[in-house]
From TrEMBL:
Documented EC number(s): 4.3.1.3
GO MF, any single term: histidine ammonia-lyase activity
Protein keywords: Lyase
Species of the source: Kribbella aluminosa
One Pfam family recorded for the sequence: Lyase_aromatic
Record bears the keyword Magnesium: no
The protein, known as: Histidine ammonia-lyase
PANTHER family the UniProt entry points to: HISTIDINE AMMONIA-LYASE
InterPro entries attached to this UniProt entry: Aromatic_Lyase, Fumarase/histidase_N, L-Aspartase-like
Gene3D superfamilies: Fumarase/aspartase (Central domain) (1.20.200.10), Fumarase/aspartase (N-terminal domain) (1.10.275.10)
Main enzyme class: lyase
Length: 473
């Protein structure tokens, strides 16, 4: 296969993740090479006339200290490579390097094409440096990118160290991965919700197109449309005129998560294609600026996590309804066999344990503050921390949804319903999957294996979805 060209434009988060996961060979486009060469010429010329931050000056509070020391760049990389001891996963490193090359291809850094070529060489040879967490607070991934600079060797000289560091590339890599996982998991929630709707004999009026056109929130509209696709034609009479919130407000709660997933995807898409450099080479001049500040993606991550907390909370309410005979019309805790059997009683505990983890991870990272470098840097977005919290939340959310899936499938099985009973509704084939995958033993036993199977099933279903929410809007 021919290498994929990186040009500094048009790279979508989903495509970036796919390139990294497949270890696809890449190259710098010819146009990008010209842009980089011209920006290097411009910054060298400007630096002869006036100070250029990090090139002819120190950094941070040392911005007012001029230097012509040829070893300045080497000392900068050495000092800034101070990090923690935890390595980034290799998939994050690979994706982060790919993103940094694409940003450099936009042509605003003042770096020579040889720097991008050296990073491309690491990618294509799968010779990834060991980069570590620590020191990144949403104002540039200084520590790990300094480690990258050291790994690049002689291609980085005294004038190119600071421009290499002027990026949130590793954080953006984790954002891309979190976005793709979130968008995929969000797409699976309606499948689980539709099975619960069947088990509880829900009232599908809540998804009527007229309801949602009366309040046309974009994500809500899309969720309601998906639920109609799954449930239209369901040959079951509703059990209630008005359902509990877990069914009645399904689209209204999942919809904002769809919207916030879109927002994260859009913010990340901008930044992985941006010349977010400080200083920025623009035309025939150099502009000192604050584009290293990652507040847009930090806020997008925080908002997504808060919206997903509500999705998780509503899922646990549906589990509560499923184990309650007043709503299911079945036995307490969907028990079968001897009197006082516990059935899926413990599933609720597992779900709320996972919900507690969701709640902890949902706390906004952007509430943090920082005063650094003798007051020269008085604010931070904490986007790296927000990205880590998002990954933690998604893991816990998957556990919550697995709990609902196990419980809904058991309720349908206990009610004696089969996929044929749901025809012609499109939810039938998903029930077939669930019934085939999950054990049919209804006796009291550990349900740990069932939950593990359900988590795997959610992943399989996510992989089978044709489109992600952010690409369909």
């Amino acid at each position: 296969m021919e290498p994929v060209e990186l040009s500094g434009a048009g790279l979508a988060p989903l495509d970036a993740v796919a390139l990294g996961q497949r270890r696809t060979a890449v190259r710098l486009s010819d146009d990008a090479r010209k842009r980089m060469r011209e920006s290097a010429r411009v910054v060298a010329e400007v630096a002869r006339r006036r100070p250029v931050y990090g090139r002819t000056t120190g950094v941070g509070a040392n911005r007012d200290v001029l230097t012509s020391d040829p070893e300045h760049g080497a000392r900068l990389l050495a000092s800034h490579s101070t990090t923690g001891t935890t390595s980034y996963p290799k998939d994050v490193v690979r994706l982060g390097l790919l993103i940094r090359v694409n940003q450099l291809a936009a042509g605003g850094s003042g770096l020579e094409p040889a720097v991008a070529d050296a990073i491309v060489g690491l990618l294509n040879d799968d010779d990834l440096p060991d980069l570590h967490r620590g020191g990144a607070i949403g104002t540039g991934d200084l520590g790990p990118l300094a480690e990258l600079g050291l790994a690049l060797g002689d291609v980085i000289d005294g004038t190119s160290a600071l421009p290499l560091l002027s990026s949130n590339a590793l954080t953006l890599a984790e954002c891309c991965l979190a976005y793709v996982e979130a968008a995929t998991l969000i797409e699976v929630v309606p499948l689980v919700g539709a099975l619960t709707h069947v088990a509880l004999r829900g009232n599908a009026e809540v998804y009527d197109v007229r309801v949602h056109e009366a309040r046309p929130q974009p994500g809500q509209l899309r969720v309601a449309r998906r639920m109609r696709e799954l449930l239209d034609g369901l040959p079951m009479k509703p059990a209630r005129i008005q359902d509990p919130f877990g069914l009645r407000a399904f689209a209204q709660v999942l919809g904002p998560a769809v919207d916030h997933s879109d927002a994260l995807g859009n913010s990340v898409r901008i930044d992985i294609n941006a010349a977010a450099e400080n200083p920025l080479v623009a035309g025939d001049t150099v502009l000192h600026n604050g584009n290293w500040h990652a507040m847009p993606i930090a806020l997008a991550l925080d908002a997504l996590r808060l919206s997903l907390h509500s999705v998780a909370t509503l899922s646990t309410t549906r589990v509560a309804n499923l184990v309650d005979p007043d709503y299911s019309g079945l036995s307490r805790f969907l028990a079968s066999g001897a009197e006082a059997s516990s059935g899926v009683m413990m599933i609720e505990y597992v779900a709320h344990d996972a919900l507690a983890a969701v709640r902890s991870a949902a706390q906004p990272a952007t509430l943090g503050t920082a005063t650094l470098s003798r007051g020269a840097e008085l604010h931070a977005s904490f986007a790296p921390q927000a990205a880590v919290l998002t990954k933690q939340l998604l893991d816990a959310l998957r556990e919550v949804l697995a709990s609902e899936l196990v419980t809904a499938t058991r309720a349908i099985r206990l009610a004696g319903l089969t996929p044929d009973d749901l025809s012609p509704a499109a939810v039938g084939p998903w029930l077939t999957d669930a019934l085939a995958a999950l054990p049919d033993d209804l006796a009291d036993r550990s349900l740990r294996e069932d939950l593990e199977i359900a988590r795997g099933l959610l992943t399989q279903w996510g992989d089978r979805q044709v489109e992600h929410p952010a690409e369909s809007g």
